[in-house]
Amino acid sequence: MKSFRRELWFDTKSRREYINITSQVNQCLIDSGIRDGLCLVNAMHITASVYINDAESGLIQDYDDWLEKLAPHEPVSFYRHNRTGEDNGDAHLKRQVMGREVVVAISNGKLDFGPWEQIYYAEFDGRRRKRVLVKIIGE
Ligand code: ZN
Questions:
Q1: Which of 123, 119, 129, 130 is nearest to 49 (CA)?
Q2: 62 C-alpha vs ligand 1 centroid, how far in Å?
Q3: Which domains, and CATH codes, for the chain?
Q4: Mind listing the pLDDT tens digit for each residue in 46-94?
Q5: Theoretical Cys-Cys bridge with 136: which of 4, 9, 59, 116, CB 3.0 to 4.6 Å?
């Protein structure tokens, strides 16, 4: 069995961003040389998510509006977590809703997606360097 590991780094300009990382994950798969196996992609931070859905701009705005309704950033004082002096209580909750990781099957050397599936990195407390782990196993 072969094993491949790579970290993808991000430094977003704004607090919240949704970045399509499908091509970067696909590059990892090409570099791994693995033709059949599993690909894990996970956020390495507790205020960011990796998820799979459609690459459609309206949908990304809908996610962001929905998450802001569920866990608004303001008022910062609303969150007990922020009594520690942080301001990212909302980001922890948003990450919980959108998930930590995805696993994609690899078949015939390709990411074996369903229709319209794309991999996204969702940042909820950005403007600093953060990373995503890609781990691929198979042969
Ligand atoms: Zn925090």
A1: 123
A2: 24
A3: 2-138 (2.60.120.460)
A4: 999 999 999 988 999 999 999 999 999 999 999 999 999 999 999 999 9
A5: 4
CA of 75 to the centre of ligand 1 (A): 15
Whether this model's pTM surpasses 0.90 = yes
5 CA → ligand 1 middle, Å: 27
Q: What angle do CA 58, 128, 17 make, to 5 degrees?
A: 0
**Residue written as token pair 């994950």:** 25
Cα of 95 vs centre of ligand 1, distance in Å, is 11
Report CA(106)–ligand 1 centroid distance (Å): 35
How far is Cα 1 from Cα 69, in angstroms, rounded to an integer?
45
Q: Indicate the average pLDDT of the chain.
A: 98
